[in-house]
Every structure is written in structure tokens, then in C-alpha cells.
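Section 3.1: Structural characterization of target chains.
Under the original work plan, the team committed to producing a structural model for every single-chain target entering the pipeline before any wet-lab resources were allocated. The record below documents one such target. The sequence was received from the expression subgroup and is listed exactly as submitted; it comprises 188 residues.
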Amino acid sequence: MDLLRELAVYRPWNEQEERDCAELLRRLHSGEELYSRDNAAAHLAVSAWVVSPDRSQVLMAYHKLYDSWAWLGGHADGDRDLLAVALREVREESGLTDVRPVSEQIYSLEILSVDGHEKWGRYVSSHLHLNVTYLLEADPAAPIRPKPDENSRVGWFSPEDAVAASSEPWFRERIYKKLNEKLAQFGG
């Protein structure tokens, strides 16, 4: 299923998702290139809320760039299969080998502002991540390891502790709490 069709059937959880979905659809319909970082102002990114099968734990990584515990994910970088991007990023960032979607449908939508920063010795201007989030699950007993160029630690938290572990207030209040609330639909 392509992103336009996925968004057409997506049911926003709240006003933030409703407005962000409308903006994402507007940008997709405009013909703007969103799948590549060649669009320095706004491009697609993918995140994963990785939970244990019993929904009692959430996987987080301590991201060096943001100096905070955060969800896992990355850029689409030309790949139009956003679920595959989410799965690949979780495997790369955590070392998990067995991670699977709870649902193949979009779990959450967010438009996120990214402050200007240095990456690989180059300045990256402030921009927007047009973020699509998927709900994935993995076994917390499986081995995990950090990805040294991106994160320094990876660990499992209770859903509430995952929110509290983030040092980014906006993410705690507007994103991670929302993701936990939505878990009730999936047996959490």
C-alpha cells in the first residue's frame, strides 16, 4: 500500500495527528519530493514504538544527537516502504534480529522540528521530519546492543518509565504519552 492510500484510511488519534496528517497529505499531493533528504526543508522519517509481546515494556535508545532516551527510527532515504524502513532501523540501532510489526498499519503520525546540528562533520539546517510511526514488537530477553555512531545505550523500560526517561519535554508530553495511550488498542 502506498503512503497516500495509507493516509487516506488513517484515523487520527487527536488534533495533532489530524493537522499533521492533513499537512502530510498536502505536501504529498503537491508533488514535493519528500522521500529524500535532498529536500532540506522537510522529508519523511520513520519511527518505531517497540514493545514487548505483553506490552509491559518499551525499547528506547539513548541518542547522542538529542542527548536523550528516545524511540528508534531514521530517514526514508528514498525507500517508499516505510514499514521496511522502521524494521531496518530498529535492527540497526538495537541489534535485535527478530522484530515484527504488531500491525502493518501506521500507528502514529507527527511532524517534528529538528534543530540545526552537525552530522558527520557537516552542518544540517533546521528542518521538519514528516514522521510516520509503526508499532513493532520484540522479545525483551533477546540480545540488544547500541549503534555507537548514533546511540550509546539501548534498554527496555516500562511504558511509563520510557516517557520519564526522555529529557525532551515536548516528546514526553505530546508523543510518548500518546503512543502509550494508543497501546490499549493492542492489548496493552
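The chain has a mean pLDDT of 92.
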